[in-house]
């Protein structure tokens, strides 16, 4: 098996107010395959999913399934190295990330119950490329909720599925 991932973020500007400030801040890092620091070995993603206003969905990071070429693949994350969520709605609904009712995964948000609001037509990128954020049975649920209107979103999660020193794997097929 082979795996590699890349995390990129960029913000550029052209500001002319008498003085000119044209610049860009870029971040890009590769995550080669593996389960150690600065490495990742699995990805899970969904695209163009819709949440109706005032509804939510909980993703159990220890049991994320998707269909690939007719087979169901389940990913069990031990750490999350990067999370990208895009609110693709162009008006109305905001996407609330975090604050699951139980076993919430809160490490990137600060504390249990904390959340981040992703406005329409906006991304949320969280990365911890070295150690990653731990996932376990007591800290595993990532909740997404729509407020103020329906939300169409896409999400990708990159992380590890095996403990360092135990070999590399990417989850199991079911």
* Computed CA radius of gyration, to the nearest angstrom: 17 Å
CATH class: Mainly Beta
- Determine the CATH topology: Jelly Rolls
Uncertain runs: 169-174
**Hey, roughly how much beta strand do the residues contain?**
over 45%
Note down, in words, how this protein is organized.
- By secondary structure, the chain is an all-beta fold.
- The chain has a single domain (34-173), classed as Jelly Rolls (Sandwich), CATH 2.60.120.
- The chain has strands at 4-17, 19-32, 42-51, 56-60, 64-68, 71-75, 79-87, 94-98, 115-118, 122-127, 133-134, 141-147, 151-160, 172-173.
- It is globular and about 60 Å long.
- The two termini are 17 Å apart.
Secondary-structure map with pairings?
Elements: E1 4-17, E2 19-32, E3 42-51, E4 56-60, E5 64-68, E6 71-75, E7 79-87, E8 94-98, E9 115-118, E10 122-127, E11 133-134, E12 141-147, E13 151-160, E14 172-173
Antiparallel strand pairs: 1-2, 3-13, 4-12, 5-6, 6-14, 7-10, 7-11, 7-13, 8-9, 8-12
List key phrases describing it.
174 residues; mainly beta; Jelly Rolls; four-stranded antiparallel sheet; 0% helix; disordered C terminus
Short description:
With 174 residues, this protein is an all-beta fold. It contains no helices and 14 strands.
């Amino acid at each position: 098996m082979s795996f590699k991932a890349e995390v990129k973020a960029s913000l550029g500007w052209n500001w002319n107010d008498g003085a000119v400030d044209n610049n860009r801040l870029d971040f890009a890092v590769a995550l080669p395959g593996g389960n150690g620091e600065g490495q990742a070995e699995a990805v899970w993603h969904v695209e163009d999913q819709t949440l109706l206003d005032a509804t939510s969905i909980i993703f159990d990071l220890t049991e994320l399934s998707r269909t690939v070429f007719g087979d169901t693949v389940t990913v069990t994350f031990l750490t999350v190295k990067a999370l990208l969520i895009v609110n693709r709605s162009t008006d109305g609904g905001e996407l609330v990330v975090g604050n699951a009712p139980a076993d919430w995964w809160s490490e990137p948000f600060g504390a249990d119950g904390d959340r981040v609001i992703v406005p329409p037509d906006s991304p949320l990128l969280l990365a911890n490329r070295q150690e990653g954020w731990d996932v376990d049975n007591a800290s595993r649920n990532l909740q997404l909720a729509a407020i103020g209107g329906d939300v169409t979103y896409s999400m990708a999660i990159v992380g590890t599925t095996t403990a360092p020193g135990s070999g590399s794997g990417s989850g199991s097929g079911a």
